[in-house]
Amino acid sequence: MSVNVGTAQASDLARLHVYGRESDDHDHIILGRGSQVQVDLTRPLSSTMWDQEIRHMASSHAIMASGVFMATVVPAVLVPGFSVYGTHLLWQYSVAGVVAVVNITLFWLLGVSPPTKKHTITYKVSRLVRSCLYLLLSCLFFHTVVVLYGAPLLETALETFSLAVLLTSLTTLRCVCVLGPNVQAWIRVFSRHGAMSVWDTSLQMVVGCSVVGAWLGAFPIPLDWDRPWQVWPVSCSLGGVIGYLTGLVVAPAWIHWHRKHLTYKSK
C-alpha cells in the first residue's frame, strides 16, 4: 500500500479505516484534521493491518460486552430486591445507559466516527442536536413498530417505550457513533454491498443481531408456560441484549475468518 501525503500529518494516518479495500483507482480519504490523503489501493493490504484492526474491534467489543454484564451485576449488589425479571425497567435503563456511555467513549477514543468538516462551535452543537434528535426519533419509531406488532397501546406504554429506548441504545446509537448523524450513510451501509470498512460490516452484524434477537424474543410471550420472563417485554429485552452480545462476538470472528475475501469499494 503506497500513500502520498500532502499536508497531512503522520499521526493522521492512524485514522484511516480502509483495511481490506481494493480498487483499480486512487481514492481520496478525508482525515480527522481535514487533510486529504491519496491512497493507492491497488495492492492488497498486509495481514498485519487486518489483524491490528480486528484486534481493536475485538477488544472494544469485549469491553462493550463487559459493560452489559456490569450493568446487570452492579445494580443487583447495590439495589435491594433488584432482578432482571422483578425490576425489569430498572435493568433496561441500566443496560441502555451503560451501553450508551461505553459506545460513545470507545468509538471516540478509537477515532471511528467520521471527521467533522467544520470545527466551529455552532457546527458541533448542530451535529450534537441532530444526533439527539435521531435517537429520539428512533425511540418513537421502535415504539410505533412494537405497537403495530401487537403490543398494548396504553396499558403497557411505559414498558413498550422502555424497550424502544433499549433497542435504540443497541442499534441507532451505534449508527450515530460509527457514521454520525447522516441518514444517507446509514442507508448506504445497510444496502447491498454498502459496507466500506470493517466497522461498517460489524455495524451491520451487531444491529441485525440485536433486532432479530428482540423479534425472536416475542415468540414465547403468548405461550401458556407462566414463566416470569414471559411478562411483557422481558423476553424481547433479553432477546435484544442476547442478540447484541452475539453480534459483538460474531462480527470480529466473521471478519477475521473472511478477511481474505473482503473488499471495500469507495462509493
UniProtKB/TrEMBL annotation:
Q: Which GO terms describe its biological process?
A: GPI anchor biosynthetic process
Q: In which pathway does it act?
A: Glycolipid biosynthesis; glycosylphosphatidylinositol-anchor biosynthesis
| Compartments, as annotated in UniProt | Endoplasmic reticulum membrane
Per the record, membrane topology reads:
Multi-pass membrane protein
* Xref: InterPro entries: GPI_biosynthesis_protein_Pig-F
UniProt keyword terms in alphabetical order: Endoplasmic reticulum, GPI-anchor biosynthesis, Membrane, Transmembrane, Transmembrane helix
Query: Where would you find the membrane-spanning parts of this chain?
Result: 62-85, 91-112, 133-154, 160-180, 201-219, 231-257
- GO cellular component, as recorded: endoplasmic reticulum membrane
Q: Give a single Pfam family match.
A: PIG-F
According to its UniProt record, where is this protein mainly located? endoplasmic reticulum
Tree of life domain: Eukaryota
Protein name per its UniProtKB record: Phosphatidylinositol-glycan biosynthesis class F protein
